[in-house]
Amino acid sequence: MPAKPFYFVTIGIGNSQDLTLRAHALLKSTPVLIAEELKPARKLLKELGRRFYEGEFEPLRKEAYLFAVDENVSAEDLEYLRSEVFPRISEASYISGAGSPLFEDPGSLIQPCLKGFRVERIPGVTSLGALMMYFPSRLKSFSMQGFLPPKTELRRRVIREIAKQETPTFLMETPYRRNSLLEDLQHILPHWKVVFGYKLTTADQKIFEGPILEIARAVKDLPKGEFVLLIYPH
User: Fold this and answer.
1) Of the candidates 4, 5, 10, the residue with the CA atom closest to the CA atom of residue 122
2) Are residues 69 and 178 part of one domain?
3) What are the beta bridge partners of residue 95?
């Protein structure tokens, strides 16, 4: 008997219409949807017209079963999926809060439960790809750091290593550490430039490009919101 499919589905990073046809079809048809965050998952499913329910799994119901797996998921919840839900379904999907699953999200926590499934990954829009479209010149190579260490000294150590490499580098950070990150970048990389993407693909999207010192001042008072940045030598 062929293995059942389990899909890691990439959704939009801000604009819910940035779904591939494959992602749209799976979210409309998969009987069980595992979500990193329930609030955006509920909103997306409602926009798609997909009926769903939560709580106790009922295999005969026609609506999608929505279940949360976040960074605080309990061993009991994972066992419930593994022993009570997964043996009774033909396929399932995992969706992150935004963008591609498994990058800095809890999707990896569910992988030990997927014995008997064939894992498939459905690509789509990413913050990296969206921001790179605004790079002011031809980008031949870059490095990716993702989220830097939250502790100040460790974060500064990584930034100093980036300075030595002199390579365009993609960074991510949580909204509440935005200004502290930019302060560190100003002190360690004062002559570098940055492409700063704020709330990408949403109605509130803003793109800033220029010297780090100028951009840090320009974004200092922006309301808290998701952002990514690409820093590069002058």
Assistant:
1) 10
2) no
3) 9, 35
Q: Same structural domain for residues 51 and 134?
A: no
Give the integer Cα–Cα distance in Å for 225 and 38: 19
Cα-based angle 151, 217, 209 (whole degrees, multiple of 5): 95
Phi, psi for residue 176 in degrees, rounded to 5: -80, -10
Instruction: Give the number of residues written for the chain.
Output: 234
The whole-number pLDDT of residue 146 equals 82
* Structural domain for 91, as ranges: 4-125
The pair phi, psi for residue 10, each rounded to 5°, is: -80, 125
The reply to whether 109 and 78 lie within a common domain is yes
Q: What is the pLDDT of residues 12-28, one digit of tens each?
A: 999 989 999 999 999 99
DSSP strand pairing (169-173 vs 143-147): parallel
User: What sign does the dihedral 102-184-223-144 (CA atoms) show?
Assistant: negative
Q: Strand, helix or coil at 56? A: coil
Q: How far is CA 76 from the centre of its chain?
A: 25
Cα–Cα nearest to 124, from 23, 2, 5: 23
For residues 200 and 94, state if they share a domain. Answer: no
Q: Tell me if the pTM is above 0.90.
A: no
Domain tally for the chain?
2
At 194, the amino acid letter reads V
167 sits in which H/E element? none
